[in-house]
Design a protein that fits this description.
Helices cover 30% and strands 20% of the residues. The chain is built from eleven helices and 20 strands. It has a ten-stranded mixed beta sheet with strand order 9-7-5-2-10-1-11-15-19-20, sandwiched between helices. Strands 14, 16, 17 and 18 form a four-stranded mixed beta sheet that branches. It has a two-stranded antiparallel ribbon with strand order 3-4. β19 and β20 form a beta hairpin. It starts with a strand and ends in a 9-residue tail after the last strand. Bound molecules: guanosine-5'-diphosphate, 6-O-phosphoryl inosine monophosphate (IMO) and magnesium ion. 6-O-phosphoryl inosine monophosphate binds next to α4.
Length: 430
């Protein structure tokens, strides 16, 4: 048995949560492999709208095991709030949620450090979600981090104090003001809460599942262009958001990766700072933001909006080995006479390229657009692929021709039901 993967191909918020929730009923296991509470994955069904940050998006499917893998950085305080919020929906995830003992813990001082580092960067700030993601992964690679499994050991307090002292000395260097007393009280309370969950060796659990022919869906957070290695560095997150992250973040061997579902919006958004070649700082961008409700699910910040960027998408497809695509938020383009698609970049020396440059920040590139006909029709009630307007089917065909990967899912609204499969195509690893 192989593990399938869902991941974002742009700068995050592509609609991963919706598709994971949709597909979860077809899988025995859903597992998050990286990131942490910087993620905000929105699920909508039965008049429920829910945003998940650290809990996998299979949690609303009672027969699905949900795993928080070793590649994740976990904030116990946010975790507790998230679980408490699920109770309103009659979800009691004590029995079908498993957390890796190897996942790194986000401490209150990691969050403070995130804020201190961002403040010190001034105009060059990353636009971090301020959830402590960067500092926690930094401590992981510096080999001083604390892991979920540590919280049950006798010397946890000692380890915690040691790391906290180190953090405080850095915060003092930054002249950063803080009040730790309340933050620490809620942190330790949340750790007691976390101890009630199944803190396990998820690497064994997942490989046992694979051996038992259970189906697994790995859920990515953020997007490929925010990947620490392949994203628009330094305006990236601190983990491997791409397919390789599944292997290191869950303990799944590369030979056990099956289908890779690449999720992308029919246009493009970015939240936070950093380069965005097709960004529209005009009324078209405003319209996309308004019609697409493009405001961050985690921080509420307005998302920057622009046209779809094919060179960037092709790059993400290549790095991830994407086998099939889901095009999201297609309905947001319902009211356009014409749609623009960036097919190439024009470089400073005048040549055309469809390759992503080494440094999007310093390279002077101008997007080159192809104009396609809009469908200018409400598609939100359509349930069959063949009933979609002709201009939209042409848009899909054009993208498939460029991207060389089939678009098997077209999403026409936020609701679970507003999901259209092309000719009932759905390939799952069996
Ligand atoms: P994620 O981080 O990739 O899971 O995406 P987010 O949840 O942060 O952002 C996607 C937003 O778009 C959410 O508000 C979803 O409810 C919404 N959404 C998802 N698919 C569609 C769609 O096809 N059409 C519309 N209009 N909204 C969608
Ligand atoms: P989901 O999973 C969109 C962005 C931040 C910032 C940069 C670094 O919902 O798609 P970090 O807090 O990770 O240090 O921030 O990455 N970012 C996201 N943007 N969606 C996300 O997650 C994101 N997670 C982080 O805005 O630019
Ligand atoms: Mg999101």
């Amino acid at each position: 048995m192989k593990s399938d993967v869902i991941l974002g191909l742009q700068w995050g918020d592509e609609g991963k949560g919706k598709i994971v929730d949709y597909l979860a009923e077809k899988y025995d296991v859903v597992a998050r492999f990286q990131g942490g509470p910087n993620a905000g994955h929105t699920l909508e069904f039965d008049h429920i709208k829910h945003v998940l940050h650290q809990v996998p998006s299979g949690i609303f499917r009672s027969s699905t095991k949900n795993i928080v893998g070793n590649g994740v950085v976990l904030d116990p305080v946010i975790f507790k709030k998230e679980i408490e919020a699920l109770k309103e929906f009659k979800i009691e995830p004590f029995y079908n949620l498993f957390i890796s003992k190897r996942a790194q813990l986000i401490l209150p001082t990691h969050r403070l450090l995130d804020a201190a580092y961002e403040k010190s960067k001034g105009d060059e700030k990353i636009g971090s979600t301020l959830r402590g993601i960067g500092p926690t992964y930094q401590d992981k690679t510096a080999r001083v981090g604390l892991r979920v499994g540590d919280i049950i050991s006798d010397n946890f307090k000692k380890k915690y104090e040691k790391l906290k002292t180190k953090h405080i000395s850095i915060l003092d260097l930054h002249d950063f003001e803080y009040d730790l007393i309340k933050l620490e009280a809620e942190f330790f309370e949340a750790l007691d809460y976390l101890k009630k969950f199944k803190l396990v060796d998820t690497d064994y659990l997942i490989n046992q599942s694979l051996a038992a022919h259970e189906t697994i869906l790995a859920e990515g957070a953020q997007g490929s262009l925010l990947d620490i290695d392949f994203g628009s560095y330094p305006f990236v997150t601190s983990s491997n958001t791409t397919c390789a992250g599944v292997c290191s973040g869950l303990g799944i061997a590369p030979s056990k990766i099956g289908q890779v579902y690449g999720i992308f919006k029919a246009y493009c958004t970015r939240v936070g700072e950093g380069p965005f070649p097709t960004e529209l700082n005009n009324e078209v961008g405003e319209k996309l933001r308004r019609d697409g409700h493009e405001f961050g699910a985690t921080t509420g910040r307005p998302r920057r909006c622009g046209w779809i960027d094919l060179p960037a998408l092709k790059y993400a497809i290549m790095i991830n080995g994407v086998t099939q695509l889901s095009m999201m938020k297609v309905d947001v383009l319902d009211k356009f006479e014409e749609i623009q698609v960036c097919t190439h970049y024009r470089l400073k020396n005048g040549t055309l390229s469809d390759l992503l440059p080494f440094d999007l920040c310093t390279e002077h590139i101008n997007p080159v657009y192809k104009t396609l006909k809009g469908w200018n029709t409400d598609i939100t009630e359509i349930t069959e692929y063949n009933a979609l307007p002709e201009a939209l089917i042409e848009y899909v065909k054009f993208l498939e021709g460029e991207l060389k990967v089939p678009i098997n899912i077209v999403s026409v609204g936020p609701n679970r039901k507003q999901t259209i499969f092309k000719n009932n195509h759905f390939h799952k690893s069996v």
